[in-house]
Amino acid sequence: MYEKIDKTQYTPMMRQYLTIKEAYPDTLVFFRLGDFYEMFFNDALVASKELEIVLTGRDAGTEERVPMCGVPYHAVDQYIERLSDKGYKVAIVEQLEEPNGKNLVARDVVRIITPGTNVTEAFLDEKTNNYLASVSKETENYSLSYLDISTGETRTTLLPLKIESVYDEINKLGAKEVIVGPRFPKPYADYMRSVFGLVVSVQEDQKLDDYLFNLVKGLPDASLDSATRLLNYVINTQKRVLVHLKPFAFYQDKSFLKLDPNTIRNLELVQSLRGDKSRNNLFACLDKCSTAMGSRHLKRSILFPFTKLEPILKRQQMIEDFSKNYLISEEIRVLLREVYDLERIVGRISFGTVNPKDLIQLKRSLGVVPQIKKLIAEIKTKTLQQFNQTILDFSDLHKLLDDAINEDAPFLLRDGGVIKPGYSEELDKVKYVSLHTQEVLMNIEQREREKTGIKNLKIGFNKVFGYYIEVTKSNIPLVKDEFGYIRKQTTSNSERYITEELKELEALILRSNEHSIELEIKLFEEVRSKCKERSQELQQLADSLSELDLVLALMIVARNNLFVRPIFSQYSDIIIKKGRHPVVEQYSPEPFIPNDLFMYNDNQILLITGPNMSGKSTYMRQNALMVIMAQMGSFVPAESAELPIFDQIFTRIGSSDDIASGASTFMTEMLEVNYALQNATERSLIIFDEVGRGTATFDGLALAQAIIEYIHEKIGAKTLFSTHYHELTNLEKSLVRLNNVHVEAKEENGKIVFLHQVLKGATDKSYGIHVAALANLPKSLTLRAHDILQKLDSNNHYDSDRLALSNYTEPVIVNTLSEAEEKVLTELKELDVDDLRPIDALVLLSSLKEKLNK
Questions:
Q1: Which CATH number covers residue 791?
Q2: Order of all β-strands in the sheet with 36-40
Q3: Judging by DSSP bridges, how do beta strands 177-180 and 199-202 pair with one another?
Q4: Which of 99, 171, 463, 547 has the fewest Cβ atoms surrounding its Cβ within 10 A?
Q5: What is the number of structural domains in the chain?
Q6: Same domain, 544 and 662
């Protein structure tokens, strides 16, 4: 659009704007004009609507005024935050020189703010990372790299050559923006935009600057494209060197327990199904962290539990060591509350957006580190002594900050008073002049009172005409010409005068103040630069303190809730005694009923029956949560627990239409089931709750049985399968590794009582009508339902033995395709749709149709 505009018809300033806008067509350009950022043309139309600000116009050399809107520069962050939330990119154009009144002021883009690169404090959630991701399609894998520009964290991995694995990982990360190359398949990029609401940005191929090579050193070749593209995008948008970025940490897909988005949602790991504000989720339950860094680290640990034993055992041992030294641990937790968000402070230091308050917070954080190290040293265990060595000492940097920065420094540098007296002799001299002139002003005021006889005469200051003498109206007759007072302003109660002496003094004070501010800014930048040199070391300290905070949080949760240290077996046995749901027991007003879970090689599948509302779903969820907690190195809510190391957890719990992708409740259910069946291994845990209830009764029953048999015969994964189809309990006779259990309930005086106990064997009643009565349905209705149920029960002839999958062979499929149809089918199978442009697809489709019609 903008490249087609004839720029010659516009004023020089507007031509400058249009030239910049041409380079950033998909970005809203905030163009600095004095104290405002202005937007023009279509950007103004968009911004005025999204920000609900007034749309005006500006004369720009043409007959029609150019659409324009603007926001004050001092409040720009809040407007950028609102636009970022809505997925817009914003280019900040600043004046690069002071206006001289003659020539056009030089301007250029100094930074591009996108949803994945926004480091504005108001935009960021202190307990959540803001990830920017990059995806590239390699020969044998998808490469996924991501970073949090506010903390410096960088990671990369290789995923199977299935686009679903990419979607799952990006969803798990909660990334808001994804970077792709120009050859990335457009349908996949469009899907991420439309279904997941992601901003997908294209970064052209570009050689990585030499100074960034250390960040990608040692990565597999297949990871280099996504990591390099990500770094180039960040450098191109931020327009600066970011020294706080850590070298990319490569991790194998198999290094962590795989949790797909459905499992994360169904198990309520980091967010309740009830919404963002509810605390009924595992993260809220475990988050006793003292720092924001620790909370973010906890969330990552929940979403990425280990599959290697070494890091699990190390974290377990730290929890145990701290628990045995509880008083010392509590002292450390108190000190950690004085540690600020080091990761993001270091990020702002690197960005150059750090303010005096940030450096004060850095100083306070560094100040408690020696005390933390001393306390850990008192616990004489090998694990903690080794860990203590990773906590670096910054006594020298702490001293610099303590010497240089005033404890009560203002937020803005230009307000002055940032640098401590005694730090700079030159600054002290300049400030002395300023303070001395203040004394001179007081002396002048006293002298003028005595000279004029006006006791309430005052010397004041305003930005319009500087220092003045103020005389109340009743005393104006006392002002004589020989005093040299020059009348400057009349107010309702007084007259204001200036004198040559005050004008000279004002010039001296202003020069002194300006020089003082300039010196403070220079000294502050020197201190910032010295902190910036230590960015990587400070990030290492942040990593260690966040791990310490996480471990202490898990320790305090374990102590307060009687969690135990699980042990890991080389076998596939699950032996949980008196297990509990960590979230439900914490927030439920009723005492939680614990239950066992015993699964060995001979009972790979537990078929769970019981009334609605009896606790089947809670029981299945609690065991899945214990697996996750155990593999993140936490203690678990049980009397004892022995577990294998799982590679994946799959869940199908509840029903909700996936409207965004056009799938019905039952289709969503079947897609989730299929995803589990296609990806599960014998080392996986499958949680299926009431599968098949979204369709007709016998369809659902048949599907449920077939799914159970498929898991039993083809996969071998440990599976908890709850059902309301009581006919399925007969499968225990034909499937040797399936056992029935049920959640106990009893009737008392015609009413149902839930006991929430899981016992061996099946139940033959669902108590559905009793539950309906609890919901206060009309009594006549529930009585009628009871009569119907009795008639249905007497006519039920379903026999699951007769439908066993093992009794069936696959039907022989007779090929009825013609020769032409066979050729078309072969051509379709060999087709790589990723390489097709839309126009090529249409041409091919037309050709195939023609072949079939011959």
A1: 3.40.50.300
A2: 56-58, 66-72, 36-40, 28-33, 90-95, 107-113
A3: parallel
A4: 463
A5: 6
A6: no
Let me know whether 178 and 306 are in one domain.
no
Average pLDDT over residues 813-829: 71
Please name which of 716, 646, 675 lies closest in space to residue 160, comparing C-alpha atoms: 675
Residue 839 sits in the same domain as residue 756: no
Helices (H), 148-220: 163-173, 186-194, 213-216
Distance, in Å, from the CA atom of 205 to the CA atom of 175, rounded to the nearest integer, reads: 22
Q: Give yes or no for a contact between 569 and 336, defined as CB atoms under 8 angstroms apart.
A: no
Give how far the C-alpha of residue 135 lies from the chain's centroid of Cα atoms, to the nearest Å. Answer: 18
Two structure tokens written together for 464:
């319009």
Q: Is 626 exposed, middle or buried (0-12, 13-18, 19+ CB in 10 A)?
A: buried
DSSP state of 810: P
Question: Is residue 264 domain-resident?
Answer: no
Residue 175 has pLDDT above 90, yes or no: yes
- Greater confidence (235 vs 796) lies with 235
The closest alpha carbon to 614, from 769, 729, 745, belongs to 745
The continuous run of DSSP H or E covering 471 comes out as strand 466-472
Contact of 297 with 339, CB cutoff 8 Å:
no
Of 545, 561, 577, which closes a domain?
561
Q: Which of 528, 547, 581 is the last residue before a domain boundary?
A: 528
d(CA 547, CA 550): 5
pTM over 0.70: yes
Q: Is residue 340 part of a domain?
A: yes
- Ramachandran area for residue 246 (φ above 0: left; ψ -120 to 50: alpha; else beta): beta
Residues 635 and 716 in one domain: yes
Please state, in angstroms and rounded to a whole number, the distance separating the CA atoms of residues 278 and 280.
Answer: 6
User: What average pLDDT score do residues 131-140 get?
Assistant: 94
Q: pLDDT tens digits for 738-775?
A: 999 999 877 766 666 777 889 999 876 655 555 555 55
Decide the pairing of beta strands 466-472 and 56-58: unpaired
Question: How many whole angstroms separate alpha carbon 228 and alpha carbon 362?
Answer: 31
Residues 517 and 541 in one domain: no
C-alpha 456/C-alpha 473 separation (Å) is: 11
Specify whether 704 is located in the same domain as 833: no
The answer on 508 and 583 residing in a single domain is: no
Distance CA 613, CA 628 (A): 25
Mean pLDDT, to the nearest integer, of 84-94? 92
Residue 673 sits in the same domain as residue 605: yes
Higher pLDDT, 660 or 84: 84
The enclosing domain of 96 has a CATH number of 3.40.1170.10
Tokens, residue 236: 């191109």
- The enclosing domain of 311 has a CATH number of 1.10.1420.10
CA distance 134 to 226: 5
Q: Amino acid identity, residue 166? A: V
Q: In whole angstroms, what is the distance from residue 675 CA to residue 658 CA? A: 15
What b-and-e string marks burial along 329-342, b requiring 16 or more CB atoms within 10 Å of the CB?
bebbbebbeebbbb
Q: 67 lies in which domain range?
A: 2-113
Residue with tokens 């409040």: 75
Q: Whose CA is closest to 192, among 833, 678, 659, 660?
A: 660
* Per-residue tokens: 531: 């902190």
> Tell me, what's the pLDDT at 775?
56
Question: Is residue 801, in this structure, part of any structural domain at all?
Answer: yes
Kind of pairing, strands 258-259 and 177-180? unpaired
Tokens describing residue 350: 């690197």
Cβ–Cβ < 8 Å for 329, 552: yes
Return the C-alpha torsion angle 699, 701, 704, 708, nearest 10: -130
pLDDT at 807: 47
Rounded Cα distance between 709 and 705, Å, is: 6
Mean pLDDT score, 188-197? 89
Spatial contact of 675 and 686, defined as CB atoms under 8 Å apart: no
Contacts of 31 (CB under 8 A, 6+ apart): 17, 20, 37, 38, 39, 40, 93, 107
Pairwise CA distance, residues 322 & 561, whole Å? 16
Q: Within a domain: residue 166?
A: no
